[in-house]
Amino acid sequence: MSHSFPFRQIGDFQITALSDGNMSASLDLLSGIEKADANIIQCSAGINKPDEIHINCYLIRGRGRIILVDAGTGSLNNMAGQLKENLATAGVSPDDVDTVLLTHCHPDHIGGLLDSEKQPVFKRAEIILHPLEVQYWQDDEKLKIANERGQRNFWLARQMLDAYAQNVRFFNGDKIAEGILPVWLPGHTPGHTGFRIDGDEKCLLIWGDIVHYPHIQSAQPAVTILFDTDPAQAEETRKNIMEKAVREKLLIAGMHLSQAGFASVLREGSGYRISYSEK
After folding, report:
1. How confident is the model at residue 1 (pLDDT cuts 50, 70, 90)?
2. How far apart are CA 140 and CA 81, in angstroms?
3. Residue 254's beta-bridge partner residues?
4. Bridge partners, residue 65, by sequence
């Protein structure tokens, strides 16, 4: 196994953070904070491109399973899309992946599931996601009222669900594998889901898009982003899960953490702080 990527061993599973690269966004997408203040937080955290969002995917290997959590943007945008290459470097071909767990269906999480002909990349994988997520993206009323960018997101989610129709399954509260549990974290999208991996000493929570700008939204958990379908619920979920992460000393993995891939959440002032952990 290649260890050129950040990884952690939790129980029987090795979890590897695979970068998909960066996408350009804008601090203007944030609500509940002045752009200048957001900029200051980014700069004091040593981030030299404050407007960029990093994308991670996670590979879970163990007990004979090869599971991928989210699939990055694919060839959708001109920046990210590095997952395929990084998977190969980690010694995994698309046909090796038996399961793709989806946190939700935004383009930077599902784009990598389809090739340029909109055909499945992971031909042997089951795609597992929350039933509310599918319900949302298949809702024609929601599609009608979406703006142009939103409509593109709906069409992509539908193309992906169609392409994998034979292999789509839902979480039903059961374990995904012994030691891996889905955790419903609604707000960012209705079916937004994290994954908890329990080991003897340590528990890891892959929390999806609880934060897009980790330093800003941990310092000020009330800050929401334009992509949230229910900003108030997203804020409440973020506060609750950060509090839980502190209380239970959870190791955190997140799709928009830095390339370090793994972090702890510490209490700081009226908010929290993301601390990238070496081990």
Report:
1. very low
2. 29
3. none
4. 62
CB atoms inside a 10 Å sphere around CB 226: 13
How far is residue 95's CA from residue 123's CA, in Å, rounded to a whole number? 6
Q: How far apart are CA 184 and CA 190, in angstroms?
A: 9
**CA 18 – CA 71 distance, rounded (Å):** 10
Q: Do the beta carbons of residue 257 and residue 274 sit within 8 Å?
A: yes
pLDDT, tens digit (0-9, with 9 covering 90-100), for 105-145: 999 999 999 999 999 999 999 999 999 999 999 999 999 99
Residue 143 φ/ψ region, left for φ over 0, alpha for ψ in the -120 to 50 degree band, beta for the rest: alpha
Express each pLDDT in 164-181 by its tens digit: 999 999 998 777 888 899
**Residues contacting 14, CB < 8 A, separation 6+:** 1, 7, 8, 60, 61, 62
Distances from the Cα of 85 to the Cα of 17, 164, 171, 215, angstroms:
13, 22, 29, 28
Q: Which residues contact 203 (CB under 8 A, 6 or more apart)?
A: 10, 196, 197, 248, 250, 251
Domains of the chain, earliest start first: 7-276 (3.60.15.10)
Decide: 228 and 236 in contact? Cβ < 8 Å.
no
Q: Which helix (H) or strand (E) holds 148?
A: helix 148-163
Asked whether the beta carbons of 253 and 17 are under 8 A apart, the reply is yes
Distance CA 47, CA 213 (A): 11
For 110-127, give one letter per residue: b (16+ CB within 10 A) or e.
bbbbbeeeeebbbeebbb
Burial 235-264 (b: 16+ CB within 10 A, else e): bebbeebbeebbeeebbbbbbbbbeebbbb
Distances (CA, A) of 242 to 19, 63, 128, 279: 23, 30, 25, 20
